[in-house]
Amino acid sequence: MIPQPDFITALFNVKLDDIESLEAFKQASIFHYHIKLKLKRHTCPYCGEDAISHGQKELKIHHPNLIDFDGMIHYHARRYICKDCHRTFFETNPFSFSGFNKSYALMDRIMKQLGQLDLNFKRIAELNHISISTVQLYLDSYVFIPKPSLPENLGIDELHSKMAYRDSAYLCILIDNENRYPIDILNSRSKHNLNKHFEQYSKTQRDSVKFVTIDMWEPYKDVASHQFKNCKVAVDPFHVVKNLSFASTKIRVSIMNQCMHGSDPYYLLKTWHI
User: Cβ-count burial of 87 within 10 angstroms (0-12 exposed, 13-18 middle, 19+ buried)?
Assistant: First the structure.
């Protein structure tokens, strides 16, 4: 018994009237759907003349469209041959993009789930019975993330990470100091990569940056001075205090080592803290 038309359309993205045969069965945890579409009049896409049916080819399309169950469409696609030029072609595939073995419905659901920040790659893969690498491939291939705008008050910092490029052990973090949130993370803090990144912005956008805070790494200062002509470059307070504290400790330890071990000056210098 063939299911109701609305259910067919929702499940397969095809009208019941277009289906010649449909067989569905469950094997283990996978639903298999064998589908053949009705024979229709086709014209040759190469010369425009009439074409006739010329065999079939089974296409397997991953289609887990029922919750908690995997699914596979076995699409028996009709091949046509032109009466005039004798070139062959297949009927239009209503289930997936040409050359893809994932259905429209599956790809649509993955794209929507990638927009849900409470779902990670692993969970999306589990929900759709696919690999984590496939989810990541779809994100890299089809999700466009617009370039963030540059704030007037830009902070440049770094984070040690194994995810950094091989020419750097650090990721570079760009921060909106006014709103206190990161605007971008770069996979290298090298001078070359920073200049390359900021050159993606127009001169007008770069000239709108008024302040840049950095640590005391010299390439940050060079990049900021080169890319942002109207900005004032300042070392952020954390790194100023950190370096003052380090310098003070270095002098204290040096003086302490000149005192007699166990003496009052030695003890005071050893236990003194800022």
Answer: middle
- Domain span holding position 52: 1-99
Query: What pTM did the predictor assign?
Result: 0.60
DSSP 17: G
Does 93 share its domain with 1? yes
Say yes or no: 8 and 90 in one domain: yes
Q: What mean pLDDT is predicted for residues 8-36? A: 89
* Terminal C-alpha separation, the chain: 83
In CATH, what number is assigned to the domain containing residue 189? 3.30.420.10
Residue 101: per-residue pLDDT = 92
Mean pLDDT of the chain: 89
Q: Would you place residue 102 in the very low, low, confident or very high pLDDT band (cuts 50, 70, 90)?
A: very high
DSSP lists the bridge partners of residue 31 as: 26, 71
